[in-house]
Amino acid sequence: MDALSVAAGDGRLTAAELDERVEAALTARTVGELAVLTADLPAEAGTRAKDLVRIEQQGGSAERGDGWVVPRHLVIESAWGDVTLDFTRAVIGHGTLHVDLDMQGGTLRLVTRPGVVVDTDSLALDYAKIKSRPSGPADAPVVLRVELAGRKSFGRIVAGPRRRRLFGGSREQG
Question: Is the pTM of this model over 0.85?
Fold first, then answer.
């Protein structure tokens, strides 16, 4: 509910929208129902996304996590390392992220939340595997479409929400 109050204070929600969403938050039964209430909010005031960001690595790992500002275009060049893009608490200021991928080996992980959709239709695979799970209800509004294009050789791409552990908490998907 703090995120809703901040959004209303910044002018990203009207008073009527705030009342409606707070009421829905109080009656929500799942985390997914709560996430939908903030998924369509514009980025925080003063946050500006870069047009282009590059991730280049060999044999290491790169991660974008809490509070990262999603650019409009991301170029990933990686050899034998892992790349994780966690959208659960990312700042999203526009509707589409274009990812140009040139990755050999390793895993590309896209940790999603309701409203984040991953499109792999323009991706060429060489001895690689894609595993994708939905991150919320099918009728959730699309906040960000992640369009992957390019080539993935060996390794895998895993897209979906964090997996819940049997006795609470969560672990990284994979």
Answer: no
